[in-house]
Protein: Sulfite exporter TauE/SafE family protein
Organism: Actinomadura physcomitrii
Amino acid sequence: MDVAGLFLAGAGAGLLAGGTTCAATQLGLLTGAVGGAAGAGPGPAATRPVRQVSVFLTAKLASHMALGALLGLVGGAVQPGPRVRGALLAGAAAVLALFALDLLGFRPARRLLRRNGTPSSRPGESEDGCHPPRAGRSGRPVLLGAATVLVPCGLTLSAELLAVTSRSALGGAVVMGAFVLGTAPLFGLIGVAVGRTLALLRGRLTALLAVALLAASGWTLLSGLRLGGWLPSGGAATATADSARFVRTDAAGTQVVTIWALDRGYRPALLTARARVHTVLVLRTRRTSGHMRVFTIPSRGKDVYLPATGETRVALGAPGPGRMPFMCASGHFPGAITFR
């Protein structure tokens, strides 16, 4: 694919689907970038969130283009596996929780953020409540924007795969840069809205926003623990009817397990199969998009990239008794095959 084609593919993916999935995954970093904009720094208050979001997106663009160039040069060897992504999501959850505690006025969190050049989260007020804060620096949105490359959403992984297949630094940088540009309109709207909302609230409803951030932190942490395979392997009982319908044995004696990967989850999500039998997993898609196009098996450290519509076969060998969890690349839609 030529450079123009790579640009269009990356921008199209970012514009059509990447903005929603990436915004959900990277909400904590985006909130942190604009959290100090309200009431801090020179210039009209209405323009401060715009500046912070612009710096955030510029840093995000630079880091993703650098990663794309590296992927184009050395291939998929530098792509993070499920456990690494799980650890990064757990880190993103910690960032979300830190900003929530900052909004609630938790002094250790506020001191920690201010140590990085961040003004108080309560506009017009310093930690002692008497003196106005010093102007915040742009270091925070730069660092957080660059850090988004460490917390990829499912569609980012698809863009990274396209960068790998470009086999050139220029092609990889173009496709990843175009992907970020495609997500920029939605990221910009969300970032400016959050920044201006914080400025308008001025402490009156910040507790509600803090609770929402804590909820998002818990959701992100749960996704990270799933991706890392660090949650208990137990779970709900599988459906016998689904197992009978989607698990079969072909003429060669191979056990074939079929799972549909759809936009709203897996069908079925829970299955029972025979242990110690040569097994092939068949993954089917039908106009599937976003993070559901990357099927992740944490216990094997494996990501399977799926076409939007089609069938993909994955050899599982002869699994022993136990539960094999699976999920989308972001850890949001879990499922499992229980081998007995």
Summary: The chain has two domains: 3-228, 240-339. The two ends are 46 Å apart (CA to CA). The first strand starts at residue 247 and ends at 249.
